[in-house]
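Late entry, evening session. Most of the bench is empty. Finally got around to the prediction I had been postponing all week. Sequence below, unchanged from the version circulated by S.P.
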Amino acid sequence: MVLPGVISLSDHDRVVAVCEQCGAAYAAVRSDGTLRPIGVETCSCGSDEFRPLQ
């Protein structure tokens, strides 16, 4: 059951994103082909460049 206003995510949407600058890892979702860390806009180092964990 999906609640109104809540985005439903599949396993394919959830990934681990790694900061390109410092290597910190964040839970993330794929949105429009980009990685968006969950709950933060940028890494704690200030970078906003992420790659998927391989």
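Two things to note before I forget:
The radius of gyration is 12 Å.
The mean pLDDT is 83.
Will write this up properly tomorrow.
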